[in-house]
Amino acid sequence: MSKLRLYFLLLVLGAIFFYAQQSFAESYDAIRSDYHGLVKSAQQQRQRVNWEKIIQRFERYVEQNSQSSNAPKALFLKARTWDGLSRASGGQEDAREAVNQYLAMAERYPSHTLADDALYSAGQIAENRLYDKAAAYRYYRWLTDQMPQGDMVNKARQRLSALPKPEVEKVPPVKQTAYLKTADSPRLEKIRYWSGPEYTRVVFDLSAPVSAEPNMLKGDNPRIYFDLLYTDMAPQLQQNLPILNGLVKRVRTSRYDEQRTRVVLDLNRQAEYKFAHLEDPYRFVVDVLGAPSRAGVQQPEPGGASPTDDSIAGILDTVPDQPVLHVPQQRKDQGIKLIVVDAGHGGRDPGAVGPNKVLEKNVTLGMAKELARQLRQRLGVKVLLTRSDDRFIELRDRTAYANKVGADLFISLHANAAKSRKAYGLETYFLNLSKNDQAAEVAARENGTSLQDVSNLEAILFDLMANAKINESSRLAAEVQQAMVAGLRPHYSRIKDLGVRQGPFHVLLGATMPSVLVEAAFISNTREEKRLTSKAYQKRVADAIVKGVKNYAATIDQVAKR
């Protein structure tokens, strides 16, 4: 073959390859259309692969059309797809990737009209789902400083006014060898702890932000330690704090050298742990994971102050009138194997009382038994009830029971009430900070406390975020609420969807599995009070919740976490 013919053949093949690429290139409108189809389909959203395909298509479009006017839009929708995936999967890693994608869009196209939307979305994820107020503040501030003409500026300014301004940590240069003690030096103010059925939490309260990196020493005397740079110890700090709960022996603090204060957690056995740095107020939280063993459990010396007086355990500490529940041990497997169903109230606590003197504790017990029956029969799972008769059980003992038996889900059943007898509808709650006054009022009623107590509880609720399955509970609540509304509307008139809400409910505190509180109807409404006493209504509520659990179980299998 002559060189001329070879050159001509290569030219033809190159042209064919070029036009083939062009013919296979997707349009922005086609990908956007499929994206909107995905977000409208609850069924499609349950499979991770559907999200990933859209992400890859937007990514490919931006690579091939970087100069197109649609490239910034595609990059923004790529971030939004990650955002949607993170909500479907409940994974914080997916949420962090969504933040990264929003930031990447804003950095690459800072003058585009969607850049401020990207930064605001990043701030919302950081604030409400990653619980990183400092990062959220930075993103909102970036928006207001760099994009003052954006349509999201006013919303960003509102969030900035509601968030604490992060303090800049002032750390002397590393080369400095002498410890400088000044009035402004950070202080380790207090050490608090709380022992749950599956972990021990130790909280270190600080006067200012401090950097720290934890380390684990293995062997016969395992321990976790970290150093606080240029940090003083408060005069009243207990430097040798015994815990002696079978998992953690004690917490020791001492001056290690001129520059560092060392903190040591002595363990009875090697264990996994989580370390978190929280703000407002500043504190380190160390969760040592594992159930305490009998060996090594001792009582602190008499006369000492209880270190848990101001913890969640102290706030919820009351004397139950029933003996400690005997619970079987349950092996933890993948998927949903065991569900604990909680009938709200009971015994000396009647709950809300209807216009015709129907008691909430009775209708919740009826619904709980029916729900347990249907879950066993239709899903083949093991179901345990927190109570099967009219007895009083402390709120905190209910989730403690679920934790100890190794439950995979916790469902607490209730009947709502309001001052106005016209109020009606269905709603499902999960544990979080209440977003409105109505949610706070429901939490106060179910907790048996005042609104002020709810406010005090919210102030320390962030200390429980590491172990509460917030994202998973949110998804479970959404599936249950959707199934209840869809299941009851064909059979009853005036079924109002009050939606999924969040609030600081005592009965959900401390749960280490996805957990929700269902308000099946308003017992204060005459029409709904009558429904609550009906076996048919109780069966249909149970049927709907089973469908919601089944749909949630599908998301566990199909929306895989990375």
Task: Tell me what the structure shows.
- One of its GO terms (molecular function) is N-acetylmuramoyl-L-alanine amidase activity.
- This is N-acetylmuramoyl-L-alanine amidase.
- It holds the Pfam family AMIN.
- Keywords: Hydrolase, Signal.
- The protein has about 550 residues and is an alpha/beta fold.
- The protein has three domains: about 25-160, Serine Threonine Protein Phosphatase 5, Tetratricopeptide repeat; about 185-300, Immunoglobulin-like (Sandwich); about 340-560, Aminopeptidase.
- The chain is built from 17 helices and 16 strands.
- The protein has helices at about 5-25, 30-40, 40-45, 50-65, 70-90, 90-110, 115-130, 135-145, 155-160, 310-315, 360-380, 395-405, 435-445, 450-460, 470-490, 525-530, 535-560; strands at about 185-195, 200-205, 215, 225-230, 230-235, 240, 250-255, 260-265, 270-280, 285-290, 340-345, 380-385, 410-415, 425-430, 495-505, 515-520.
- α7 packs antiparallel against α8 and α15 packs across α17 (about 535-560).
- Residues about 20-25, about 170-185, about 295-335 and about 450-470 have low confidence and may be disordered.
